[in-house]
Amino acid sequence: MLCFIxxxxxxxxxPKNVALKDPPVLPGQQTVPPGLALVIIPTFNxxxxxxxxxxxxxxxxxxxxxxxxxxxxxxxxxADIVRSRQLTTRGLYLMTRAQxxxxxxxxxxxxxxxxxxxxxxxxxxxxxxxxxxxxxxxFLDAMSDSHLLIGSRYMNNTVNVVNWxxxxxxxxxxxxxxxxxxxxxxxxxxxxxxxCFSAEVLRTLNFDRINSQGYxxxxxxxxxxxxxGFSIAEIPIVFVDRSVGKSKMSKKNIREAIWMVWWLKIKSxxxxx
Length: 273
Ligand SMILES: Nc1nc2c(ncn2[C@@H]2O[C@H](COP(=O)(O)OP(=O)(O)OP(=O)(O)O)[C@@H](O)[C@H]2O)c(=O)[nH]1
Ligand SMILES: [Mg+2]
Known about the structure:
It is built from 8 helices and 11 strands. By secondary structure, the chain is an alpha/beta fold. The strands form 2 sheets. A 9-stranded mixed beta sheet has the order 2-1-5-4-3-6-9-7-10, sandwiched between helices. A two-stranded parallel ribbon has the order 8-11. α1 packs parallel to α2 (78-86) and α7 (216-227) packs parallel to α8. The structure holds guanosine-5'-triphosphate and magnesium ion. Magnesium ion (MG) binds next to loops.
């Protein structure tokens, strides 16, 4: 599939059309200051959240963090809010895609961008305030010893989730247990979407092979990193359910996660990952 995306930078230069399949990563290419981190925030209809979140991130991390929002043509004008923030925010970038193409492809487009620019650490974060911006500092502090650090809701047999309906919590817990049981991956919260990769790890992955769209994208990324022999660490986080905007979670996402863990397990057993 060839689909066009646009990247707009904070200096508001003329947007440049680039294909979704970005050019191959050039090893050692360095266009950002050494050690800089990038947080990727995928958005679809997050107008009620994104402005406040960007303001808070810019205030807390004025020099240590760049931000890439990947918006799938949200009808609610999310991208316009980002564009107006760009006028006053350093290091804020916007990638727009023509239609809702899923979380997985959004993150992969962001990872390719991060590697091409030479960021050292790459974070994933939701736009809906389920992830506390303060935790980013804890990720960055711990990354010198880690390759993949996951913000975990379920460490040490605790549950750190606020305002989730019981059904949603049970579903998430069952997904974690199911994933651990089938894959053997030693991760307490494999579907968490608040995490930080070192660029070194991302560079070893073949993004063209990643298939997941929804929650299983998180499982698949963890599994592939783990199977490459990298260690995965977790830090405890508190996850707060969104207070505004709508969830994009669907039954399709759940079905995908159920078969994806088997697909990953079987592929890895035959060395086809
Ligand atoms: N670009 C892009 N972003 C998406 C897409 N689907 C979801 N998102 C964003 O991904 C993040 C997570 O989505 P949510 O709907 O909050 O999903 P969730 O956090 O797993 O589910 P809830 O707990 O119900 O909120 C949010 O920032 C969404 O706006 C998509 O297809 N494209
Ligand atoms: Mg959410």
